[in-house]
Amino acid sequence: GENVEQHPSTLSVQEGDSAVIKCTYSDSASNYFPWYKQELGKRPQLIIDIRSNVGEKKDQRIAVTLNKTAKHFSLHITETQPEDSAVYFCAATLLTGSARQLTFGSGTQLTVLP
Amino acid sequence: SAVISQKPSRDICQRGTSLTIQCQVDSQVTMMFWYRQQPGQSLTLIATANQGSEATYESGFVIDKFPISRPNLTFSTLTVSNMSPEDSSIYLCSVEQTGTGDYGYTFGSGTRLTVV
């Protein structure tokens, strides 16, 4: 089955700086890679996703890049703000498979220091 | 996007008892998933529940401990049976949304279970 590794486990940045979180996956067939933000006591919320037919996707201050050859994808947050502080999870799945369950990385606790 | 109502939001239960968690979705969905999230940890898939078929359990999870029902395309329950303190965790349901231009996986608000 799929295995997703995520690092770093914790990341502290100054407000206004950029943050990068990286994930690697094991199953070359996986073709859908979402990122979730989970604030304390809340449900995971999808913030951005990417499919294997594109290499990069942006949404305002958030971007995701995908390298299929190396089987890794990264989340980039620019101009970080204190409200970006949360745990971020990457995930992977095969959309065309019969199961289609998400396999999650271990999470990154991002702290944005004011 | 789909709206999921999950309940109860939290409960404190005696060991040896069972708790049933419910998830109601405001639209019909084919696939529903149940996850466990232990404190400070990632999400671990318990099982996949499709309407009209038996749930598919991941390694380490068994039907006798976590029976699941999926009576229709908008509802599912997960029961945590014969609970022990090790079952204390957050349980989340999730659905796969396949609407045009609106694909993704949405989560319920979670059930925080404490077993004493």
Explain what this protein looks like in three dimensions:
The complex is a heterodimer of chains A (114) and B (116). Chain A is mostly beta strands. Chain A is built from no helices and 11 strands. In chain A, strands 2, 4, 5, 9, 10 and 11 form a 6-stranded mixed β-sheet that branches. In chain A, strands 1-3-8-7-6 form a 5-stranded antiparallel β-sheet, with no helix packed on it. In chain A, β6 (56-59) and β7 form a beta hairpin. Chain A is globular. The mean pLDDT of chain A is 95. Chain B has no helices and 11 strands. Helix content of chain B is 0%, strand content 56%. By secondary structure, chain B is mainly β. In chain B, strands 2, 4, 5, 6, 9, 10 and 11 form a 7-stranded mixed β-sheet that branches. In chain B, strands 1-3-8-7 form a 4-stranded antiparallel β-sheet, with no helix packed on it. The chains are: A mainly beta (114), B mainly beta (116). Chain A binds chain B through residues 34, 42-46, 49, 89, 99-107, and chain B through 31, 33, 41-45, 48, 56, 92, 94, 96, 103-110.
Runs of chain A with pLDDT <50, length 5+? Answer: none
Quaternary state, please? heterodimer
What is the string of helix and strand elements of chain B?
Answer: EEEEEEEEEEE
How many E-type strands of chain A? 11
Q: Shape of chain B, please?
A: globular
| CA radius of gyration of chain B | 14 Å
Quick structural gist:
Chain A is mainly beta and 114 residues long. Chain A contains no helices and 11 strands. Classes of the chains: A mainly beta (114), B mainly beta (116).
